[in-house]
Amino acid sequence: MNQSLERYSRQVLFQHIGEAHQKELMDSYAVVIGCGALGSVSSSYLTRAGIGHLGIIDRDFIEESNLQRQILFDENDITENLPKSTAAKRKLRRINTKINIEGIVTDVNYTNIEELTKDADIILDGTDNFETRFLINDICVKNNIPWVYGACIGSRGLTMNIIPSKTPCLRCVFETMPQIGTFPTCDTAGIIGPIASIIASIQVTEAIKILTKDFESMNKTLLEIDVWDTKFKQLDVGDLRLLNKCSTCTSHNFEFLEAKDGVLTTILCGRNAVQVMHRNVGRLNLEELAQRLRSIADVSSNVFMLKFKVKDYEFTVFPDGRAIITGTDDLSIAKSLYSKYLGM
């Protein structure tokens, strides 16, 4: 065996890979967007599998509550106040010095996603919100980049492969974003670590199939797993691309990439606060949102507004989906907090 392949010898022995496909992996460029529970696991396995060039993009810093499920991080990373993508790069370089690993600390948005994913052979979803997923979907359909959707909450997870022009895209399955405040997040509903590891492991397996062009073996369904109830479900979504006349992959309307949808952020001068506003949101049911949040914070609400405080941040949420987040003037932090506690 070629000496450069020796570290991957057990993977090369696997009948569906062999030396030729291993070399394809070593020439591939994978981008992981989001380095939380899903992204930390998938980045680790991609590194160990010998993906030649790995880009890890995340806007957040490590918090103590991340350690329960985000396997690349430890308490020293928190002490050093490291961004997730920086800590991930440092850890992964200790695992495999033979590959090129980039740790990029930034908020992925419509102004930079094209440059961030330039030349990528595949993108893996490690995000925690639908806005970024729809943005990934837009750029992948536009530039013909395969990507692997993944999501998990509680004990339940979902994943699906998206191959532009060959499979349904994310908008074929989820035509619109969930109503703000009605979709649970890890910060409001919790999550157990194993489901993230399972979904991310499947994402990487599917990525390896796609990169080695084994489309016959590729999963062609929306896979749903609940590890607590030990339930597995495969939903046939194959016909949706033609039936739904999807605005993205059929009509090539890239609403999120063109910033027709998404989140607006504005610094409120002199107040150490940021206003976050979603462009397309209906009227919120503040009482339902209050019920969802009461497990993590003291909440006060009436028909006009809802208030709650988490750590050093105070939220004031209005029925039109607008939120004022006091305690920061950093737009990226405010956007992340909005996603964590209100969902988007």
UniProtKB/TrEMBL annotation:
<protein>
    <submittedName>
        <fullName>Molybdopterine biosynthesis protein MoeB</fullName>
    </submittedName>
</protein>
<dbReference type="InterPro" id="IPR045886">
    <property type="entry name" value="ThiF/MoeB/HesA"/>
</dbReference>
<feature type="domain" description="THIF-type NAD/FAD binding fold">
    <location>
        <begin position="8"/>
        <end position="237"/>
    </location>
</feature>
<dbReference type="InterPro" id="IPR035985">
    <property type="entry name" value="Ubiquitin-activating_enz"/>
</dbReference>
<comment type="similarity">
    <text>Belongs to the HesA/MoeB/ThiF family.</text>
</comment>
<dbReference type="InterPro" id="IPR000594">
    <property type="entry name" value="ThiF_NAD_FAD-bd"/>
</dbReference>
<dbReference type="GO" id="GO:0008641">
    <property type="term" value="F:ubiquitin-like modifier activating enzyme activity"/>
</dbReference>
<dbReference type="GO" id="GO:0004792">
    <property type="term" value="F:thiosulfate-cyanide sulfurtransferase activity"/>
</dbReference>
<dbReference type="GO" id="GO:0008146">
    <property type="term" value="F:sulfotransferase activity"/>
</dbReference>
<dbReference type="GO" id="GO:0005829">
    <property type="term" value="C:cytosol"/>
</dbReference>
<dbReference type="GO" id="GO:0016779">
    <property type="term" value="F:nucleotidyltransferase activity"/>
</dbReference>
<dbReference type="Pfam" id="PF00899">
    <property type="entry name" value="ThiF"/>
</dbReference>
